[in-house]
Amino acid sequence: MSTSPVTLMVARRVEAGRYSDFNRWLNEGRELAADFAGYLGSGVLSPPADDDEYQIIFRFSSSDTLEAWEHSASRHAWLVRGTGLYEAPQEHRATGLDAWFSSGSSAPPRWKQAVAVWLAFFPVSLLFQWLFGDALADWALVPRVMLSTLMLTPVMVGVFIPLSMRLLAPWLQGKWSPLSLLVRRRPSPR
User: Fold this and answer.
1) The pTM is what?
2) What integer pLDDT is reported at residue 68 of this predicted model?
3) Which pLDDT does position 91 carry in this prediction?
4) Strand order across the beta sheet in which 39-45 lies
5) Nearest Cα to Cα of residue 59 among 167, 155, 170, 149
6) I need a labelling partner for 179 at 20 to 30 A (CA). Which of 1, 70, 120, 138 fits?
7) Running DSSP on this structure, what letter comes out for residue 86?
8) Looking at residue 148, what is its pLDDT?
9) Does residue 149 sit in helix, strand or coil?
10) Positive or negative torsion for Cα 43, 46, 48, 50
11) Do residues 160 and 124 lie in contact, with contact meaning Cβ atoms separated by under 8 Å?
């Protein structure tokens, strides 16, 4: 049993011509999950223009609460209603902070994880302060921080951290380095 938050990441390829049906079905599933105890949030990453694979993320407070949702009759009925909208899904389950970073292999070093989370969190926090900072300036510190974290955490968990992980995946997995931009490759002698 895990008492850490658990993330279920699902990749689904949408059948041609079924995008609007798929999106309606997907939103129904997210609303369904929100009714279950332990639900922490969900997010959807749309595919790039040249692809049709959606990344769907569900977060629950523990493996027990995720399993209760996964084995529920209402989720089963929802999956049956989705028949024909997508090809066989790929699923990956992860626990704790490493959930955002592992992609079938080992998680990247903690310093890379910290950079990736910061790159997601900084612009969103900056935008929040720009939009609401003046309105909240007279509030005491604890209520001001409580409100900002209550508003930003679901947005970060459901949208921006997964987006950051997707965009930074080559760097996080060690397949790309910023230094590669600085180092010029010498042409090989012929």
Assistant:
1) 0.51
2) 92
3) 72
4) 39-45, 53-60, 6-13, 90-95
5) 155
6) 120
7) B
8) 85
9) helix
10) positive
11) yes
Residues 6+ positions from 87 with CB-CB distance below 8 Å: 12, 13, 15
Confidence at residue 62, expressed as pLDDT on a 0 to 100 scale = 86
Residues of the chain with pLDDT under 50: 1, 104, 181
Report the alpha-carbon distance of residue 78 to residue 46 in Å, rounded. Answer: 20
Tally Cβ neighbours within 10 Å of residue 82: 18
Residue 124 and residue 155 in contact, taking contact as beta carbons nearer than 8 Å: yes
pLDDT of residue 133: 87
Residue whose pair of structure tokens reads 């529920």 in the numeric block:
72
By CB atoms closer than 10 A (0-12, 13-18, 19+), residue 22 is buried
> Using CA atoms, how far apart are residues 62 and 69, in angstroms rounded to an integer?
11
Element (H, E) at 93: strand 90-95
Name the β-bridge partners of 43: 57
Distances in Å between the Cα of 69 and the Cα atoms of 41, 78, 169, 175 are: 13, 12, 29, 36
**Separation between Cα atoms, residue 138 and residue 184, nearest integer Å:** 53
